[in-house]
Amino acid sequence: MGVVPSTTFKRCYHLPQAMLNYQGLTSKGTRAVCLALVSNAVVSELLLAGNAIGTYGLQCIVDMLKHNTTIQVLDVSDNDLGSAGASLLADLISNTTLASLKASGNHFKGTDAKYFSQAIQKNTTLKHLDLSHNEFTEKGGILLGRSIGENECLESVNLSWNHLRLTGIAGIAEGIKANVSIKKLNVSWNGIGNDGARVLGRALRDNWILEELDVSSSRIGFEGLRMLFAGMVGNETLKRLILTKNPITSSGACVALRLIQSTPSFQIKKLEMADLSVTSEFLDLLSELHKTKPDFVAVYGGILRNKDMILDTLAKHSDIRDPLEIFMEFIKQNNLRLMDMFTRLDKDKNFSISRLEFERGIKDAEIPLDGLQMDKLINRLDFNGDGEIDFGELLDGYHQYVQRRRKKRKDSEYMQALSNQIRPISSRSRYVFRNPSRPSSPSYDSDPNSRPVTPHCINLSGPLGNRDEFIMSLNHLPNNRNHFLNVSDMNVTDVNALSDDSDDSDDTGCEIQVPQLYDHHGIGDLTISDW
Predict the structure, then answer these.
(1) First-to-last CA distance in the chain?
(2) Residue-by-residue DSSP string for 314-335
(3) How far is 212 from 197, CA to CA, in rounded Å?
(4) Tell me: the pLDDT tens digits for 442-461?
(5) What residues pair up with 277 in beta bridges, in sequence order?
(6) Which CA distances in Å does 395 have to 24, 338, 389, 390?
(7) Are residues 379 and 291 in the same domain?
(8) Is residue 285 located within the same domain as residue 268?
(9) Taking a C-beta distance cutoff of 8 angstroms, is the pair 66, 93 a contact?
(10) Longest CA–CA separation in the chain, Å
């Protein structure tokens, strides 16, 4: 057949799962696999993602599955199948007993949705359909919505990353209104906006089946959140709502809790806003909600004290350890390679780590991460947002960790060098930086002994560099109103130190204005003149 035998396929031929993702399979290789599987009664899952099976290879798969009824799960994601592939997959859906189909990332267009629409309407066996990361656009959303409304066997549908926008999501919403089987719907990353949230809310009011809705990264703001909840009043089946990466604000999160508590029909048990920092008001509302719904779970990103975003940012950088850093340090301390850790977490050996596998692996390894840190770590490593972590994504996370460590080390070295240039000086020094915009203070020139106890001097022992670095060094002075600079050359680009007894020298420096500092230190326009 002109094909090199694959040891990977040979190993999995007698296993329930034939994992052939990213094996470089072409049309010929796919044909060979299909010929071997025609009469196979063991393999129930055929995974072919990330290959180059081509139209002919897909045709071989379709023909094989018409005779093989054992295989129930098929993954042909990321094979660049295009419109011709969409037509063949529609034939596959219509004429086989497949239960799960994943065809993500195959460049299907809006016009290709007609093939899937017709097939989905006729199908009576397919339960899980993943058409994410394609380009169905608004037109495709309308066509797929019609088929969803008439299908009675689908249980989960993933249409994320398909450019559906408002018109497309309106078509999907119409289908959800009439659907009697779908329990899980993912329409994230489709830019549906506030109006799209309103349309979905109205659809949920008439739907009594859907249990999970994912609208992450959908440009839903505070008003959109309010319309979503207002529209779905009366729904009694939705249990999980994912709103991560939407600009709903902390106020919107509080509104969501109030509506869940005040609407008896709502049965939402999990509300996810993993990237959103909440206020103490939200925590109070959550505590109150737990009194009536003790099993309710809210996933959020952090806590804002006094509704101050600046304080939250400082807390993230100072008090809370980076979960990626904890994870990578565990690998280093245990003398593991990245591949070793990946293999340990990849329990089913499909070269991809699911969220459940990752969480279980972290707990089994006793890595000190709480639930919130684990969610943050998974979201950071899952760069493409498909819910799986492959080795490439883990490697990208490692590179991020290394870059941050290098930056921290450089910052630390610079601050150490700067701190070595700052020292207390005696009260003999005669030159004071004063704030001309503040009320005048007692003259320290006339009474040196009345000078504050903690004046400081920058003792520059070498070239400081440029003006920006000079200003940076002044920004790190203690926050007093009086500071001293011991210099001999005020060129700023090349500032050198004087000895401690420079007070009696006749050297003179040119005047330098540094107005950027008065907000930070409260010392007004800082001048250095006439030494």
Answers:
(1) 90
(2) HHHHHTSPPHHHHHHHHHHHTT
(3) 15
(4) 444 444 444 443 444 444 44
(5) 302
(6) 21, 7, 10, 9
(7) no
(8) yes
(9) no
(10) 103
Give yes or no for a contact between 19 and 50, defined as CB atoms under 8 angstroms apart: no
Is residue 308 located within the same domain as residue 400? no
Tokens 């057949």 correspond to: 1
Whether residue 501 is predicted with pLDDT greater than 60 in this model: the reply is no
471-487: per-residue pLDDT in tens? 444 544 444 334 444 44
Same domain, 411 and 460: no
The Cα-based distances of 491 to 24, 38, 417, 466, 469 in angstroms read: 63, 82, 21, 9, 13
* Domain boundary, last residue among 415, 447, 473: 415
Which of 119, 157, 162, 112 has the alpha carbon at shortest distance from 138? Answer: 162
- Rounded distance, CA 265 to CA 358, Å? 35
d(CA 91, CA 82): 15
User: pLDDT by residue (tens digit) across 166-216?
Assistant: 999 999 999 999 999 999 999 999 999 999 999 999 999 999 999 999 999
What is the enclosing helix (H) or strand (E) of 117?
A: helix 113-122
CB 444 within 8 A of CB 475: no
Are 149 and 177 spatial neighbours (Cβ–Cβ below 8 Å)? yes
Count up the domains in the chain and report the number: 3
**Which domain, by its residues, includes 513?**
423-528
Taking CB atoms within 8 Å and a gap of at least 24, the contacts of 84-88 are 84/55, 85/55, 85/58, 86/112, 86/115, 86/116, 87/112, 87/115, 88/55, 88/58, 88/59, 88/62
The continuous run of DSSP H or E covering 459 comes out as strand 456-459
Q: How far, in whole angstroms, is CA 304 from its chain's centroid?
A: 19
pLDDT in tens, 418-444: 666 544 433 333 333 333 344 444 444
Give the integer Cα–Cα distance in Å for 105 and 131. 8
d(CA 164, CA 286): 34
Residue 483 DSSP one-character state = E
Q: Which helix (H) or strand (E) holds 313?
A: helix 309-318
